[in-house]
Amino acid sequence: xxxxxxxxxxxxxxxxxxxxxxxxxxxxxxxxxxxxxxxxxxxxxxxxxxxxxxxxxxxxxxxxxxxxxxxxxxxxxxxxxxxxxxxxxxxxxxxxxxxxxxxxxxxxxxxxxxxxxxxxxxxxxxxxxxxxxxxxxxxxxxxxxxxxxxxxxxxxxxxxxxxxxxxxxxxxxxxxxxxxxxxxxxxxxxxxxxxxxxxxxxxxxxxxxxxxxxxxxxxxxxxxxxxxxxxxxxxxxxxxxxxxxxxxxxxxxxx
Amino acid sequence: xxxxxxxxxxxxxxxxxxxxxxxxxxxxxxxxxxxxxxxxxxxxxxxxxxxxxxxx
Lengths: 255, 56
What we know:
The complex is a heterodimer of chains A (255) and B (56).
Chain A: H1 3-11, H2 14-46, H3 60-87, H4 90-122, H5 130-151, H6 155-169, H7 172-182, H8 205-234, H9 239-252
Helix pairs in contact in A: 2-8, 3-4, 3-6, 3-8, 4-5, 4-6, 4-8, 5-6, 5-7
Chain B: H1 4-47
């Protein structure tokens, strides 16, 4: 069997996934923190202030990557849920449900930091603007997925029901993305383009790129950690979890 | 730096939410493993024969 395919199959095994997540999550967090620390330092102290917004523009270095993550995580949750529903892969159910709180966290950051930026720039903390409102609906969808997953006792049925909501919710993502073009919006249009010329000054771009990469690494670490927690809870009665609990307790008591 | 208060507040929110995102699953894993360990100890204690009327 192809080694990549074999590794993919092995990853579906709960004990193997537990070892994998325990090993790689700290690395993802560590790298993510390092990259974000560099991006934050550059964004706060090195890049010059914007000629119109002054230093308040520095908020975009956390607001924009978080907003992108809120959309990306929801899309990924929808994808994992679809795979879990079609092929009944238990690990995909776990990964899909682990996405929800992380995505909700990034959505909260997006809404709060946007609101903090809006006060000095727009003169208001909140406006029922299409972009802001659709992002708020995204937060409610995340909360709906989390709530539905917690409301059903059977973990597998709960993941399937919440996964279905996640798949339906993916329809909101293009609405958020194109809301600034479809409706008359107070929120600014697209300034950063992956393909094509961005209207952002090139000197402002490196910290943003670092924050985008850093948040992705952080997400990966958090996804592994949360999936590991859910996996352990589901498998709590199994022999391998007892063994792992013994190992971890022994490690904790080692002087 | 102008708007320093707004910038500081935004970065503080970012750090606090990410810390919450980190700490919560770590606590969950520890709680689960501790619960499993306690169950293992309870099960082991059950296997030890208790002194009963018959033994006396």
